[in-house]
Fold:
Amino acid sequence: MIELQRIGVQFTGRDILKEVTVTFMPGEIIGLVAPNGTGKSTLMNVIMNYINPSSGKVILNQELQYTTKKNEVKIRQLVSMMPDQSDLYNQISGKEHLKIYSSMWHSNPKLIDQTIKELGMESYIHKNTGTYSLGMRQRLCFAMQIVSDTQVMLMDEVMNGLDPTHVELISQILVKKKSEGKTVIVASHLLENLEKYADRIFFMKNGELIHVNDISPGFEEREITTLRIKELTDHLKEKISNEFPETNVKSLRNGSTLIDVRGYDSKKLGNVVEFLKVNEITEFSFGKVTLNDLYSMYYQEG
Amino acid sequence: MWNMLKTFFILEKSNKRNIFACISVAIFVFGLMFFVKTEDLGNAVKEKSGEYQSLSSALSQYQNVDATDSGNGSNLYKNLVLQQLLVSKQRMAIKMDRPELFMDAAIELTDLRTKSFGMEGFDNVESYLPSKIENQLDRVFYDYMNQTGIPLSIDSLTFFQFLSYLFVVLGSVWFVFISIYTCGIMIEDFQHTSLIKGYPITFDKYVIAKSIATMLIVGVFIVEIFIFSLPLLYFKGVGNPSYPIPVFDGVFTVYPIYKYIGVAILYMIFISIFTILLSVILNVLLKNMYLTLFVELLLFIVPMLFPNMMNLIPYNPFNYMNYSHLLNGQTPDLANPVVLNATHGLIYIGMSIVLMVVAVKIFLTTGKLKRV
Amino acid sequence: MWAYFKLEFFQFMRNKKNIAIYVILLFFSCYFAIKIAPTYNPIEKVEVNEIEARYETREEFLNNVVINDGTHHLTRYAAAIFPEWNEYDKQRLDAINQNNLKEYAEATYKWYAYSDNMIFYRGGGVLYYNPGYYTFGNNYATMDGHFGYLYNASRYEGYTEVNSDLTINIFEERTALQTLQRLLNSYLPLILIVSCILFTVDIVLKDRRNPTLLQGLPLSDWRKLMVKGFVSLLGSVLAIIPLSVGLLIIGVQNGFGDFGLPVPIYIADDIFSNRMMWEYLIQNMLLIIFWFSLIISLVLLASVTLKNEFANLFVASVLVLAELMYFNRGIGAIKDFHWYPTSYVQVGQITSGYRNYLYASEALTFGSGLAIIGLCTCMFLFFTFLLSNRRKFKLL
Structure:
């Protein structure tokens, strides 16, 4: 369990993080979603103590804090951050990288071969990393963190440069890690993918951490809450706004329109479909608000 | 700690720098052999001829007069004439293979020279004669030889003779070599900060592990020196490990070769640790390996550029970075003489090492490493 | 190409290491001008007392000596050679007392020529050169003296022919240009070459820190390397600027000297011929630039093959230091070391012929230096060219 208490960070007078208070539990995957430059990496750096926050504290397992160097080492043993792929040592092999991480964190050496297998890296793991492609390097970085086997894992842009197959593969591993009781904090721009496995998703804005549920209550519930229509003409928009209460209709920047149908029963929903059919709208779907929609909605003004 | 060492081992074994450093050590050893051979070092006949010539020109300052005791020449003149006579005798002794004669003449010669230093008009002939320090070193050397009856070495390429010469030369260049070798010690890590920053180990432990790893490699260099000198055993023989080398260590004395090598290696180890830590600190401060190197080399030559400083701050560890300079007693011969003592040197360097370790422990942390 | 040159050049000039080298050179040149140059104590000084003492002793001897059958042969010999010798000394004394430096130069030239002839060929162990040569431990004092006297004879002969204003400082080689000339004969070329090594050592490998930025430039690797080499050459030549500061200081103190001053060049067999200062300096500059090119081409080659800065440093140092391993006085008479580019590392000594004297050779000339170093440069560049044009080649 890792707790952030009233974390504040300022750069050149600007608040990057403002009184951030949050607790991440074991067996939980946390998604951090925000446009570039809103403080995701800063938050991770604070958790790693690479940046000293101007106020607040990080508490690990209710007892450990970054108060002494000794504690720092103890926390490092339990919290890791995924390395940057440009920081790999080009002149040694991927396997050696994994060995280094395994031995630095005293983790089970069996994890090395296991992870290599899981990520399908056998064919190139013995080559020098200087010869790797972007995706290979990214997988190696991920593998290194998996091998370090820490209780809390911070991953910044973990899916960068990966093909869909490997995105899927890594997602599965993340879920597995979650089932092992790890706390995984992922910052990612692959929203659909994140939505699939993240237990809680946070947006960041103006230095604050906002739980998605607070913006869209019921986001995490399993029921039909939203009608989403692609591509509407202005004429139709007008019709819709006559049909539905104004507060329930939202046009997004990505072109789609969301209509809040929370609490509608099947009859009411049937009426809605009827209406759509009459107006020759074919591309629509019922369901939840997607993370993509929320993102568009939330950051529209910014 | 052990894990850190293992990590460094993985990284260092793939580092080309180590290979080239090993080759440079090899070239140094073999190059020095060639140098000793082409320069014909230790050829007593050649040296004595030069000495004879120097004395001749010293004497050319005087009119030729009766040099007997009752003669009317100055004391210094008579002294110089006798010196020349003795040098001739030594040349003869070498040619006739009469070492005991050579030795007696040598001792007599140092006596004469000791007397000559105080004589009137000595300033005019000073440059033709060995300095007081050199003479005293000669004196203790020949005295020791005389007492122990060790035969005079004529081949400076036997194993131990060569090693003794090698470690003397090494004394002047060791700091420079280690500076070049270690000047980028942390810079390479700065290019991999996101890997290193998160290691569950404190920065001082990291630095200490790094120093130990580097010291192990330096140890390999030292072993290499001996290994590459081994062919001499076959071609030239062992030589005498107890052969004396005159040194100044607060007092004039002789070290047998094995002791000299021992002291030299001790110094080399201390200097290496010192330089490694200095490189670490300068790397963190300057973030540039060449600037680190330049600062180190400047610190190294400052005592040579401004010798008065040695007198002013005798505890400056850089006064001791050139141990052969230290042991051949040049420092008490300066305008502002200082008696630099080899043991004190080790203490000062040791204290500096401790200070730097403390500084690393207090001021530096891994988390704050910045990528360069 | 021009844009890439500008990019490289600005990077070069902003490189902390390079700035540090310039600053250090500036420091050394000032340190030299202020602390070392004033303590310069040439063996051959304009010393009236010394001439006078020698003149008078010999004159007294000549006045008193009686030659008869019983006279020792050395006394006869002295009586035979001292009159002419003393004649020159007398001329020197008179000239210097009248402050007629032209005449002093004339007499001094003859004095050195005569002295050398007497000492070297007829000295027979009783006549010596200036005692300054016979320092303790110098086994080649006579050879040094021989060279020194011939050198000075040629120099003073040159002074009688030039139109420049002569001064004592010129006679003692203390003016700025002559100091430069002396330095070229000692450490200056090495300092410049080492600076060049340090300038070049990272010029290729620095790009490893941000490879993607530069890989895509529409310029072949070979051209990139050439631009880098050229930037480094330019930077090395610019090292002259901080060094000239020290020269300015010396110039203000001791005069600047004159580009028309003679510089004696040793040809062979004890023959010297004078060259104008400007000519000598240009030759040196040229040879040094050739050396820069050699070092740069070697380091470029090492950069693309070994890809390690430490290795670059090592390879270049070996090239510079290799001569130490085989050089020995007179070795040139036995072995053909003039085919080795490393024998030309002492640029000033090559152009002044002193290196030939030390090697006892005639082949180590300015021309052969240019040819051999140029050839080696071309070879290194050719290998680099071949390598950089291989299909699998990667610059970084």
In short: The longest strand of chain A covers residues 14-24. Chain A has eleven helices and 14 strands.
